[in-house]
Amino acid sequence: MMRRAVFLDRDGTINPDSGYIDSPEKISLFPAARSGLRLLYQHNYLLFVVTNQSGVGRGYFPESALEPIHRKLSSEIEREGAKLTEIVYCPHHPDDRCECRKPSPYLVFRLADRYEIDLAGSFFIGDKISDILTGKNAGCGSILLAEHSQLPGLREMKEWLEPDYIAPDLHQAARWIVGEGSVEESNQ
Ligand SMILES: [Mg+2]
Ligand SMILES: [Zn+2]
């Protein structure tokens, strides 16, 4: 049976985007990510992180630095009663013209093949335009995370970006996905 999934950006979506994160000490979950991921997991969504980590390609830190960071991220999420199925990343420099850097859907397609995922019933959540485009390129629903204060400007952007939903944080995004949330402030 095809499974449904939620693909998540990492920095600025699950954890604060504090520049190029090169050690486990520098990563911590947003409170809204803790409850949001738990809610999605309880509703049987497979959870994946899909992240661009160009700090590797730029030479800011070695690719081997990502493993302990992602081990901490996974264990913190498990402590919240959820589980990441896999974390995948593009380590390349933007100028490398690789096939995996978001907004390319390459990594999402690879996961969809491996785990037999129904992409049309799945979602991509992120805080950047490239995340929304990745979701669209992969044929998923797309949710943009934006603070309430940013929402007026984003409403203007919505006409061309067209995310399926705009949420202030991962908890509200998860509530919308599982159908519990109100939709005020979304696509009005
Ligand atoms: Mg981000
Ligand atoms: Zn890449």
Q: Can you characterise this structure?
A:
This protein is an alpha/beta fold and 188 residues long. Strand 5, helix 6 and strand 6 form a beta-alpha-beta unit. The protein is built from seven helices and six strands. The chain has one domain: HAD superfamily/HAD-like (Rossmann fold, 3-Layer(aba) Sandwich), CATH 3.40.50. Helix content is 37%, strand content 15%. Strands 3-2-1-4-5-6 form a six-stranded parallel beta sheet, with helices on both faces. Bound molecules: magnesium ion (MG) and zinc ion. The site of zinc ion (ZN) has 5 residues, from loops. Zinc ion binds next to loops.
Give the helices and strands as they follow along the chain. Answer: EHEHHEHEHEHEH
- Distinct small molecules bound, one entry per kind: magnesium ion, zinc ion
Radius of gyration: 16 Å
Shape: globular
* Strand arrangement in the largest pleated sheet: 3-2-1-4-5-6
The tally of beta strands, per DSSP, is 6
- Individual helix count: 7
Uncertain regions: pLDDT < 50 for 5+ in a row?
A: none
Number of structural domains: 1
Structural class: alpha/beta
Superfamily (CATH H level) name: HAD superfamily/HAD-like
What is the architecture at the second tier of CATH? 3-Layer(aba) Sandwich
Termini Cα gap = 35 Å
